[in-house]
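ESCALATION

Customer reports they have been waiting on this structure for their group meeting. Please prioritize. Original submission:
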Amino acid sequence: MGMFQCMWNLLPKRAPVVPVVRLEGVIAARTGPFGGLNLNSLAPALERAFTMRRAPAVFLAINSPGGSPVQSALIAGRIRALAEQHGKPVLAFCEDAAASGGYWIACAADEIYADPASVLGSIGVISAGFGFQEAIGRLGIERRLRTAGHEKSLSDPFRPATPDDEARLAEVLEALHVEFKAWVRGRRGPRLTAPEDALFTGRFWTGRQALPLGLCDGLADARAEARRRFGDKVRLLPVTGRRRSFPWSLLGGAGESLARGALAVAEERAAWARIGL
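Update from on-call: job pushed to the front of the queue and completed.
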C-alpha cells in the first residue's frame, strides 16, 4: 500500500447524505390553500434531490390519500425520468397513507416501505358529486342551460342523471382504472403475489397486510432503512419545493375566496375519510 493510500485512509470520511422529498396531501392540479401535491409545486424539490452528486439514493416520504390521476401520473413519470437520468435508486416510505394516487406515486420507487399501520392500495378510481335538481325546484329556481353538443353537460348537478350519463362516466372511470392497473402491474410485476381481481378492486390494506401481497417490500421507516443500508452516520436531508405562504386572502373578507378555501378543506377531508383516516 502506497503512502498516498495510507494518508487517504486516515482522512475522515464524509457521512453519506440521503435527500428526502416529502409528498403530503391530496393530489390536485391546483395546490389548495393549506397544501396539496402537483407536479408544478413538486418539480423543484425533485430536481434538487436527484442532482445531489454524492447522494447514494433518493427517499420519498409519502402521505397522501390520492387525488388527480393525471397529476399522480405526471409526478410518478418525473420521478422515473430523473431516476434513470441520474442513475439513483428511489425508495418510498409510506406514512399514514399511500392510497389511490398516493400509491400510484409510490410505485415510481424501486422499493416501497411502510409502517405496519400505514394504509396502502386503493387501486381504483372514484367520482363523487351531488344532485340538486329537486332542491332548486322547491326553491323556485329555474335552471337555464344551453349546450352545443348533446354530451356537453355530463354530471350536471342541477338535472337528473340519465342512463347515458351514467354509462359515459363509467366508461371514463374504467379507462382510468386500466391506466392505473397497467402502471402498478408494470412497476410491481412479479412482486405482486395475489390475483389481480383481488388487488385492483379499490380495497386498501394496512402495511402489515400489504407486505405478503407484494404491495410493499418491507416494514421500516426512512431513518432505520437508511442506517441499515448506508451506516450509522448517514444523514437524511429534507428537500423542499416552493415555500407556501399562508392564504391571508381567506381572512380578508373575500367571500368567494373563503368559500373556495372551505370547499378545498372539505374535499381533502372527504379524501382522507374514504380510507378511514
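Sent to customer with the following note: Residues 7-11 have pLDDT under 50 and may be disordered.
Escalation resolved.
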